[in-house]
Amino acid sequence: MIQLQDYSIHFQDKNFALLREQLTTNAYSKIFVLVDSNTNRHCLPILQNALEGIELHIITIQAGEIHKNIETCQFIWKALMQQKADRKSVLLNLGGGVIGDMGGFCASTFKRGIDFIQIPTTLLAQVDASIGGKLGVDFELVKNSIGLFNNPQAVYLYTDFFKTLPKNELYSGYAEVVKHTLIQNKEAFLQLNQMDCIEHSDWESLVKDSLYIKKSIVEQDPFEENIRKSLNFGHTIGHAIESLSWETDAPLLHGEAVAIGMIAECYLSYKLLGLPQHELDLIGQYLKSLYAKFDLHKIHSTNIITLIQQDKKNEHQQICFTLLNKIGAFKINIHASEALILESLAYYNNL
Ligand SMILES: NC(=O)c1ccc[n+]([C@@H]2O[C@H](COP(=O)([O-])OP(=O)(O)OC[C@H]3O[C@@H](n4cnc5c(N)ncnc54)[C@H](O)[C@@H]3O)[C@@H](O)[C@H]2O)c1
Ligand SMILES: [Zn+2]
Question: What is the residue range of 138's domain?
Answer without folding.
Answer: 2-164
